[in-house]
Amino acid sequence: MQSPSIPLEPEMLARFADELADVTDAMAMSYFRKPLDVERKADQSPVTLADRAIEAKMRERIAQKFPAHGILGEEHENTRLESAHIWVLDPIDGTKSFISGMPTFGTLIACLSDGAPELGVISIPPTGERWMGLHDKPTTLNGTPCHTSGRTRLADATLYTTTPDTFDAAGSGKFEALSGQVGMRRFGGDCYAYGLLASGHVDLVFEMGLHPYDYMALVPVIEGAGGVITDWQGGPLGLHSDGHVIAAASAALHQEALAALS
Fold it and tell me: Cβ neighbours of residue 246 under 8 Å, at least 6 residues apart?
């Protein structure tokens, strides 16, 4: 049985997450645009030594600081998932971008308390941009508060999805229905698109096939910047969500997008 959580002090969490991201950024850049062997996992997604080494270092640091906390990550065995506090990690979100030299990959760090995200970090090593969201606090970009565009109409919105390759037939139909109503649609970005949404440059992100390590860190970042992020039915995202994610710059835009999907 999961024990009740002991509240984590937000400033302490933020400091630790910043230090952790400093370490992972440096590691990622030491591997970036260098020769790397690429393996294929069971789902045929690529993985490199960099992915595994970065996550191993993150796990080591978390275990030293918070030995009772659980860890759910992309590349290594999950531990203590019955804990009230769980760290959710993606060492390189956008491995395909990383191995092809595109500087749009990032590291995602989330800390959950009783299943709800208390902290989320999107760190983009090649650009030095780092978004941090803390529950009930404004999202920051490199320490300065940032905000979504606040746009409310699909006709004015810029929509991103990482790649149409992730959509099945039904998902592709949904994407076409939604993107046919926006002002502009673009492809690429991985987690970077969500950071750009939090800073007001992108208005909608629409994806499917994501895992908890792909989206849990995004929740505090988007919400703390004034946006909305849910599944395609408008439900909250959690560890057991179906991987269908929509993020919007405002509640009104989110509602219009959900209407387009239905």
Answer: 204, 205, 206, 207, 229, 230, 231, 232, 254, 257, 258, 261
203 is in an annotated binding site: no
Burial 26-39 (b: 16+ CB within 10 A, else e): ebbeebbeeeeeee
pTM as predicted: 0.93
List, for residues 94-152, the tens digit of each pLDDT value.
999 999 999 999 999 999 999 999 999 999 999 999 999 999 999 999 999 999 999 99
- Per the annotation, does 93 bind a ligand? yes
Class (C level, CATH) for 154-261: alpha beta
The domain segmentation of the chain, as residue ranges, is 10-145, 154-261
Q: Is 90 annotated as a binding residue?
A: yes
> What DSSP character marks residue 119?
E
- Specify the CATH architecture of the domain 10-145: 2-Layer Sandwich (3.30)
Which tokens hold the place of 67? 């030995």
